[in-house]
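hiii, so i know i said id send this last week but things got crazy w the move. better late than never?? heres the sequnce for the chain we talked about at the cafe, plus the structure i predicted for it. fair warning i was half asleep when i ran it
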Amino acid sequence: MKRICHACQKTLDIGDRAGRREACPFCGRDLHVCLNCRFYAPGAYNDCRETQAERVVEKDRSNFCDFFSFRDGPPQPGTETGTAAPKDRLESLFKK
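okay and structure toks below
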């Protein structure tokens, strides 16, 4: 399976599970984060498709979620990690 860091988009050589303290060897960012999880779904309740998972506020920081499972491949289109893309879309709705 192709595992990709949400921050630097580099391919990682790890299994399905990432330890809570595990970091990307390229950029040093946490790997056990919502943004790397296959259940992460912006717009879903708590931005997660796993209904039993507890709420995680900071999606880019390491957490204790027991349901974490690395997503396959790069993030899906429309799952931007920054705030610029949603803000740009909102502003485009109100342009004259």
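btw Helices lie at 84-93. thought thatd interest u
miss u guys!!
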